[in-house]
UniProtKB/TrEMBL annotation:
<dbReference type="Pfam" id="PF13426">
    <property type="entry name" value="PAS_9"/>
</dbReference>
<dbReference type="InterPro" id="IPR001633">
    <property type="entry name" value="EAL_dom"/>
</dbReference>
<feature type="domain" description="GGDEF">
    <location>
        <begin position="206"/>
        <end position="339"/>
    </location>
</feature>
<protein>
    <submittedName>
        <fullName>EAL domain-containing protein</fullName>
    </submittedName>
</protein>
<dbReference type="InterPro" id="IPR000014">
    <property type="entry name" value="PAS"/>
</dbReference>
<feature type="domain" description="EAL">
    <location>
        <begin position="348"/>
        <end position="602"/>
    </location>
</feature>
<dbReference type="InterPro" id="IPR035919">
    <property type="entry name" value="EAL_sf"/>
</dbReference>
<dbReference type="InterPro" id="IPR043128">
    <property type="entry name" value="Rev_trsase/Diguanyl_cyclase"/>
</dbReference>
<dbReference type="InterPro" id="IPR052155">
    <property type="entry name" value="Biofilm_reg_signaling"/>
</dbReference>
<dbReference type="InterPro" id="IPR000160">
    <property type="entry name" value="GGDEF_dom"/>
</dbReference>
<dbReference type="GO" id="GO:0071732">
    <property type="term" value="P:cellular response to nitric oxide"/>
</dbReference>
<dbReference type="GO" id="GO:0071111">
    <property type="term" value="F:cyclic-guanylate-specific phosphodiesterase activity"/>
</dbReference>
<dbReference type="Pfam" id="PF00990">
    <property type="entry name" value="GGDEF"/>
</dbReference>
<dbReference type="Pfam" id="PF00563">
    <property type="entry name" value="EAL"/>
</dbReference>
<dbReference type="InterPro" id="IPR035965">
    <property type="entry name" value="PAS-like_dom_sf"/>
</dbReference>
<dbReference type="InterPro" id="IPR029787">
    <property type="entry name" value="Nucleotide_cyclase"/>
</dbReference>
Length: 630
């Protein structure tokens, strides 16, 4: 029993000691935990304080205005807000309502945005206008966010000053929609207004007039008095036209010397005609430019909505067609779009539609006209001339469809077909054993500005296997001179392909000799108008003579076109012209017939070979008396 008690006491003592140890350990751990918690709390408080300070610093330093509205009043504003509203200090803004500082035109939107936020909806950033303390208006991009601020619902407003961006936008928009010389609306704004007028007129069952105006002697002013005088003239004309119209009407400048007027007609045709008469009279009043008295007239064509067209493009096309008719009638005229013009336009629209399918339907063919060397009658080349075999209208000459192809842009795919076909045909003649010659292809201005021309020609030469020196590209003189800064680099690129280049219709396009010197061309094609008169008009002969002399001095060959008679050919030869093309030798013929001519290799020269060459490369010039050939 005593042993049991002793055992029990020992166990109790052990247990008490263990418990004490446990309690001591627990206390120690509790103390450690408490200390750690206290430390962590301290760190968290520190972090929070730091974060708040950081946030406050960010808000203070933010370049955007930051304001907090609670209970319908601003309770906080940062320094940027003070700057934005042109206040003195943040306190100036406190107490104001968001709505009070919004521009009147934006207040409804601000109210709607606040309602959305209160109902828990997200509000995207919006562009608004705010009123500054000095009463001026500022453009701002505003973001609003609902949050709890010191346990109260609040709205944080971040506003960025976008007035500089808006100013630039307005400036760019003005530049994109106005002509820089006259300040008038340009084509883009005109089309916008025209479409708007159509919508209004449709709704109100109204009509209005579109007038197309072309100044008759603008090119002359530009060429003879210079571009500055040309610009002054345009400014004066735009002011004169505007002064004849009402505020609500539009005068636009859509091209060099092309203006368009949009005027309400209200069914009173007589009034409209009187107004157009006033415009013409105002334009034709004499003016002084650079000390020269100048009188410029205009040709005016007009169309009416809704009779002549339902859309902007149709109305402009009709007015343009009428203007061309006015020009044909002798300038300084008004032409109203009428039934006759309508049937012409319809025909043109039909041709354009058919022309779109002409290549794929195989309706285009090339004819070839020989170019003959005047020394020995050999055929040195042929010019490829396009013909359209229309299924119903029969063969159409280029004059009947090239202008349509030009206007519609179809000239680019059609021209590509011509280049490809001419290369393939020339190579086929060579493979058939015919003497190698060059084939000349006409390039229109639109083709010259189309991207990918160089690559396309290179591809045609490689597909056909034609030596580049057997392809000649004819560029018209006017196209070359219109934009020489673009054309000269293009010509150089074409020359790197190894092809020949010639200037077509030479003598008609006001050549600038400075540019001509820099054109990397091989020959000049003397315009047919000189050739036609060479035997009857000594001035035409003088020009032909000068063209030949100048070309030779520049190391270029001369091809005279449209030579029809023996006398013309003889005279051209005696004046040193190198090659001649024209009905005298052959009309343009199909590929098979041309092969026969090439087979013969030479065409007979005129019998009377009075002009027989005595000096190689330069033929003797006859006396002026020989001009009137019997
Ligand atoms: N961009 C392209 N333009 C082309 C292409 N094919 C032709 N054209 C252009 O059309 C113009 C008219 O061509 P066409 O009706 O074929 O007239 C040519 C000859 O047939 C004609 N000619 C030739 N010899 C005489 C003649 O002795 N008398 C006379 N009255 N007419 C004659 O002259 C035209 C040749 O012109 P040119 O090109 O200036 O050498 C034509 O001018 C081309 O511009 C084409 O594929 N693409």
């Amino acid at each position: 029993m005593a042993a049991d008690i002793a055992l029990y006491e020992r166990r109790l003592t052990r247990e008490i000691s263990a418990r004490k140890q446990a309690e001591a350990l627990l206390e120690q751990k509790s103390l450690e935990l408490f200390a750690r918690e206290a430390q962590e709390r301290k760190l968290a408080e520190l972090a929070l304080r730091e974060s708040e300070e950081r946030y406050q610093l960010l808000v203070e330093l933010s370049p955007d205005a930051i304001l907090i509205e609670a209970g319908g009043r601003f309770i906080f504003a940062n320094a940027a807000a003070v700057r934005l509203f042109r206040a003195q200090e943040p306190a100036d803004l406190l107490g104001y309502r968001m709505l009070t500082l919004a521009a009147p035109s934006c207040r409804a939107d601000v109210e709607a945005a606040v309602r959305d936020l209160v109902q828990g909806r997200f509000c995207p950033t919006v562009e608004e206008q705010a009123v500054r303390f000095d009463g001026t208006i500022v453009d701002v991009a505003v973001t609003r966010l609902a949050f709890d601020y010191r346990n109260k619902p609040a709205i944080q407003i971040v506003a960025r000053d976008i007035s500089e961006r808006k100013r630039l936008e307005t400036q760019l928009n003005y530049l994109a929609t106005h002509d820089t010389v006259t300040g008038l609306p340009n084509r883009m704004l005109l089309m916008d207004r025209l479409r708007q007028m159509i919508m209004d007129a449709k709704r109100r069952h109204d009509q209005f007039v579109v007038s197309f105006i072309d100044l008759d002697r603008f090119k002359w002013v530009n060429d003879s008095l210079g571009h500055e005088a040309g610009d002054t003239l345009l400014k004066i004309m735009s002011r004169r036209m505007s002064s004849c119209l009402r505020e609500s009407d539009t005068v636009a400048r859509i091209g060099g010397d092309e203006f368009v007027l949009l005027t309400q007609d209200a069914g009173n045709r007589e009034q409209t005609m009187q107004m157009l008469g006033r415009v013409m009279a105002a334009v034709s009043m004499p003016l002084t430019l650079d000390g020269h008295e100048v009188a410029v007239t205009c040709s005016l064509g007009c169309s009416t909505y809704p009779d002549d067209g339902q859309d902007a493009e149709a109305l402009l096309k009709c007015a343009d067609a009428a203007m061309y008719r006015a020009k044909e009638m002798g300038r300084n005229k008004v032409q109203i779009y009428d039934m006759e013009l309508r049937s012409q336009t319809d025909k043109r629209v039909r041709l354009e539609t058919d022309l779109r399918h002409a290549v794929e339907r195989g309706e285009l063919v090339l004819h070839y006209q020989p170019q003959v060397d005047l020394q020995d009658g050999s055929i040195v080349g042929v010019e490829a001339l396009l013909r359209w075999q229309h299924p119903e209208l029969g063969s159409i000459a280029p004059a009947g469809f090239i202008p349509i192809a030009e206007d519609s842009g179809l000239i680019v795919p059609i021209g590509e077909w011509v280049i490809h076909q001419a290369c393939m045909q020339n190579k086929a003649w060579q493979q058939a054993g015919l003497p190698p010659i060059r084939v000349a292809v006409n390039l229109s201005p639109k083709q010259l500005s189309a991207p990918g021309l160089i690559d396309f020609i290179a591809q045609c030469l490689s597909t056909s296997g034609l030596d580049p020196s057997h392809l000649e590209l004819e560029l018209t003189e006017s196209a070359s001179m219109d934009d020489p800064d673009t054309i000269i680099p293009l010509m150089h690129k074409l020359k790197t392909l190894g092809v020949r280049l010639s200037i077509d219709d030479f003598g008609t396009g006001y050549s600038n000799m400075q540019y001509l010197k820099n054109f990397p061309v091989d020959s000049l094609k003397m315009d047919g108008s000189f050739v036609r008169e060479i035997t009857t008009d000594s001035r035409s002969l003088a020009i032909a003579d000068a063209i030949v002399a100048m070309a030779h001095r520049l190391g270029l060959q001369v091809v005279a076109e449209m030579a029809e008679t023996e006398d013309q050919v003889m005279l051209l030869a005696s004046h040193g012209c190198d090659h001649v093309q024209g009905y005298y030798f052959s009309r343009p013929v199909g590929a098979a017939e041309c092969a026969e001519l090439l087979h013969a290799a030479r065409l007979p020269l005129p019998e009377k070979r009075r002009w027989q060459c005595t000096v190689p490369g330069r033929l003797p010039v006859p006396s002026r008396k020989a001009v009137k050939v019997a």
